[in-house]
Design brief:
- There is one protein chain.
- Helices cover 73% and strands 0% of the residues.
- The protein has 543 residues and is mainly α.
- Helix 17 crosses helix 18.
- The radius of gyration is 30 Å and the shape is elongated.
């Protein structure tokens, strides 16, 4: 439509009625043509509250919160919809203080306004204010209850969310409220967060009786519940029983569940089942979870194949899929492809940097990890616990002792990062590999929060195996362990192996007698405990 035709149409609308004009404004706003909507709105001679509300709602829908608030302040008259619309829009955009101010000034508040403000508090992390406001409602409806239950769960108060649901359905409650599918979905999500299988099964029964079992969101919530409670048979059964109503979210929930429960092969098989038996296309989360499982299997062929599918569907440079690709290639030992994916990412977040730094560390590319860290700092991103662990791992695997000392000092002084056991284990490992055993011992003793930590002393004890002159230190490390955990099998085994490696058979016999007396037996693989903790933490943290 050319400008002349548009002007004729506008002239006609002005001559017809304000309702047609408002419809055209809504059309402009639906197409995000805010300037055209404002131009037409300004030319309207008869603007009523409906046209003002439409203009404000449209601006909020386009993310123009300041413009919406400015229009609201200029309204000649307002109704409850005007107030509720702007309160809801400002809350959702994060301007909760301004929304709160308007809510308190509302001359007449309906339930929608109360519910909008409760949701606004919840979505902005102000859960105590949300609960306080909810308690002041004279007659909360099911939307109010559902909002506060969901908000509590989303703000890590899942147990309180379940208590709130119990209060809602209590026969003693003065207002009988019937839960909706949204309510049940929120409760199931809270059950999943608390791993409360018993209550979840009861909710499952209520869902079936109420007829909400066919709801897609409820189905996904049920799958997540069974997944979090390690009931993967039930989780998969739910998916297959309602296959016709399954969505990409429900398939992804099962794939993610298998992966989080260590059943990576099953996760990949479910991915292929979804691709081969349905018309559902995988999304960002589907690829992310499946690729992590490929990494867990260290199956490069499978991971490369799924990488190809992700590229075909437009996720090749997506940051979240890319992070999982970096992890997968690193775990499979293909660090060159991991670096290539990293370089091709459309954007990089802290997880991207941490994953590639740690990946290089575990593939004997310690100097590359350090170079990447320098590049990361130039982007003004601040390192976190995982960054430091990756750097210390790089220094350990590449015997970069001075660099490790530097990063450990930096970590200890970083007020934004918490020193964790895994950092200390990794630093002890670096020092042991380089023969600085006494320094490692002093580091543990001088770190107040860890000087009685058994795994850290086990790491030092494990490091003593390589040095014939370290038997006295090994005994001191063992004494520290036995002071805390007298029946520590791993310490006995490590000490016995140290004595055996240097031919001190009388001491080996003595250790075995002590183990037999204590009723202990050797635990296979425990001698590697100090080596594995740090890498296990870095992998799980990236996931």
């Amino acid at each position: 439509m050319n400008d002349a035709m548009m002007n004729n149409l506008i002239a006609y609308l002005f001559m017809s009625n304000k309702f047609q004009c408002t419809k055209l404004i809504n059309g402009y706003l639906g197409g995000r043509r805010i300037a055209d909507a404002l131009h037409l709105f300004a030319r309207m001679s008869d603007r009523d509250v409906v046209s003002w509300n439409s203009m404000i709602a449209g601006c909020l829908g386009c993310g123009e919160t300041r413009l919406a608030h400015n229009l609201f302040s200029k309204m000649p008259e307002r109704n409850v919809i005007s107030w509720t619309t702007v309160v809801d829009g400002l809350s959702k955009s994060g301007r909760v203080d301004l929304a709160e101010d308007l809510f308190l000034r509302m001359p007449c508040k309906d339930q929608a306004a109360w519910n909008s403000m409760i949701s606004g508090y919840c979505s902005n992390g102000r859960i105590d204010q949300a609960v306080g406001l909810f308690r002041r409602m004279s007659c909360p409806n099911v939307i109010s209850w559902s909002a506060i239950i969901a908000g509590l769960d989303q703000n890590d108060r899942s147990q309180q969310a379940l208590s709130m649901f119990g209060e809602m359905i209590s026969t003693h409650h003065p207002h009988l409220i019937q839960p909706t599918s949204d309510t049940f979905s929120s409760v199931l999500t809270a059950c999943a967060s608390c791993a409360d299988l018993l209550l979840g099964i009861q909710i499952h029964g209520r869902l079936t009786k109420s007829g909400y079992i066919s709801d897609a969101f409820a189905l996904t919530s049920l799958i997540t519940l069974y997944t979090n409670c390690k009931q993967m048979v039930s989780s998969y059964k739910m998916l297959r029983e309602d296959a016709s109503r399954s969505t990409v979210a429900s398939w992804t929930a099962v794939i993610t569940g298998y992966g989080s429960n260590g059943e990576h092969r099953a996760a990949v098989e479910v991915f292929h089942e979804m691709r081969n038996t349905t018309c559902i296309l995988p999304n960002q989360s589907t690829f992310t979870s499946t690729l992590k499982s490929c990494g867990g299997l260290e199956d490069l062929f499978e991971g490369t194949s799924i990488h190809g599918e992700a590229v075909k569907l437009g996720f090749g440079t997506d940051v979240f899929v890319g992070n999982s690709l970096i992890f997968m290639y690193s775990k499979c030992g293909d660090i060159e492809n991991a670096l290539k994916v990293f370089e091709e990412l459309s954007e990089r977040n802290l997880v991207s940097w941490n994953t590639i730094i740690t990946g290089c560390a575990h593939n004997s590319r310690g100097l590359k990890s350090l170079a990447l860290y320098k590049d990361m700092i130039l982007t003004l991103l601040q390192p976190d616990e995982i960054t430091y662990l990756g750097l210390l791992t790089a220094c350990s695997h590449s015997k970069l002792v001075e660099n490790a000392r530097y990063f450990y000092r930096l970590l200890s002084r970083d007020a934004n990062v918490c020193l964790r056991r895994e950092h200390c284990i990794c630093m002890v490992d670096v020092l042991c590999r380089s023969g600085n055993l006494e320094e490692a011992e002093k580091l543990i003793i001088n770190t107040e929060e860890f000087k009685a930590d058994v795994p850290i002393w086990l790491s030092l004890l494990s490091g003593c195996r390589m040095y014939s002159n370290a038997t006295d230190l090994a005994m001191r490390a063992a004494d520290h362990i036995f002071d805390v955990e007298p029946d520590c099998s791993a310490a006995y085994v490590l000490l016995s192996n140290i004595y055996a490696s240097f031919g001190r058979w009388d001491d080996v016999a003595q250790i075995r007698i002590m183990m037999k007396t204590s009723g202990l037996s050797k635990i296979p693989g425990c001698s590697e405990i100090g080596r594995t903790n740090s890498s296990a933490m870095s992998i799980s943290a990236m996931s």
